[in-house]
Amino acid sequence: MGMALTSCVPPESGELIFEIGEDEMELGIGIHGEPGAERKRIELADRIVEEMLGRILVDTMDFTQSEVAVIVNGAVIVNGMGGTPLMELCVAYANVRDILKREGVRVYRIPYVGEYMTSLEMASLNITLLKLDDEMTRYVEAPCDVAARHPF
Question: pLDDT class for 151, splitting at 50, 70, 90?
C-alpha cells in the first residue's frame, strides 16, 4: 500500500505524472509513479499509517499469529519512493510496529526501512507485509550480494 505527497517527473516527458495540491495526498499509488486510487487531505503520519495498515490487514490474508517481515517495501518493508527522508520513514515504521503489535502481528527481527524501490524523486511511503513461513524465512535470511548496499 502506498501513499504520495508529490508526483514524479519521468525524464522522457519532463512533466509531472499527476498534479497534487500542497495539502493533499494520493492513497494507493503505484510503484512506477502512478496516481493513487483516492485523493485526500494530508493527515498526521500516525493517521496515514493507521489507514494504510487497516486496508492491508482487512484486504489481504490473516497476519495474526504469524510473523511478518515489514518492508517500509516485505517481511515488513517501509519504503520511500525516492524523495522521503530516512527519518520520516523511521517515524512511519515506529507507527507500523506499534499498530502491528496491537493487532497481534509479530514483526520479524529486522525491519527493512529505506529506499528499496524508488519512483525517481516522489515524496511517498510504501508499506509491504510479507507473511513468513519456514521457506520464506530462509529466503529473507539468505545471503546476497548487490551492487549498492543500504547504509544500515
Answer: low
